[in-house]
Amino acid sequence: MYSFLKILVQISLRVYFRKVQVKGKENIEDPGPYIFIANHPSAFMDPIVIATSIKPAIYFLAAGEYMGKGFKYWFMNKFLHMIPVYRPETMPGETFKNDKVFDKCIEHLQSGRTILVFPEGASNTEKKISPLKTGVARIVRATEIASNMEAHVKIVPIGLNYSNPHKFRSDLLVNIGEPILAANYFSLHQESEHEEVRALTDHMEEQLINTVLHVENHELEELLDKINQTYSRDLKKKLGVGFENLNREFELNKLTISAINYFKEHDPEEYNSMTTAIDEYLTELEKYGASDKEVRKVDEKTNFTERLFLIWGSIPFLIGFIGNILPYELAILIQKKLDVKGSFRGSIILAVGMFIFLVWYVGIMVTVWLTTPLSYFSLLIPPVLYFMGMHALVFSTAYQYLTHRKRVRQFLAKNPDVSNGLLEMRQLLMNRFERLRAKFDNRAEVNAS
To answer: pTM of this prediction?
Structure first.
């Protein structure tokens, strides 16, 4: 059941996300046991993403209130590998059961298995790592002591870097960090437990921060998003960073965060001037319903390749549209009825869509099998509808962008004063960013020398 669901979810994730990249698989090639620690921006989405991104079967530490009792508990525990943790703030009368959970984790690690833990303790969509709980370090220490320091447990940080976990057709970089050999932090001396657990937890937090885009507050996160709407496209072009290279994009975002923090702390006048300029430019774009990309490419017309795609891509688009529109609209309707907010939204969208499309594809396949002489050909229906549906998504996105770009270009052509004003504002903003980049790079060179 676990293996089947893993394959099914992998297929679903390829639909939900526009781009998915996993970095650092070489860090988990050695035999276990492993404890994977990860940030937690999207509730149920996060363990699903990690389980489908790595080879070893994972056992999850999950909040006990979500597992329930009876059949639901049995199914989640047996087939989904979920191990309940009883939190005092949600299940105060059940916390005594955590001793058995603790022992079960030790047993898993001693047998060479893997466990996934979200040590922040709660799901938070912000681009920030909250202080880690000490539970992982305590589990690992107990495992090593019970094995006379021979368990060789490795703690591996995993950064889940979503462009937006709750938005359909967004991007995802799964960043697997280098393993931490837990035994290096421990001794057999009981009186050293507190210091050893604290030291390991602090190191885990540092390493986890290295795998994500860690932004200290919401103001800086908003500024990073605004820079990505404008200057980042030019910067990636200058540096030759391709559209599919999420890893290089991640590294550039890391540098951008460092630059933002530097200017905010050491040159607040420059920082405030820059934020004012970018806000003014984005306000002007919003006024005319344009994006920075459209202004940057205002003189570019639809090329031959784009026209060819729109012409020849329309036939498979119609097949994908007709074959998938009913389950697609039904999934949207159910999601609106459920009205899920916060960190659960993305995972509910994924789960509802996966279930509806699975029932739809299997239902059509069975109907064709039973009612036509095309029995064996009906087996091709699910993959054909899946790939045609993927094409329909790409085609519709491209068509909407190209038609909107055409309307913006026509508007700007009829209003040259607006066009020239936007282009001038953009050029001044790009010049400012280039000057700030040179200033930041010079500072880095001075510090290095």
So the answer is: 0.86
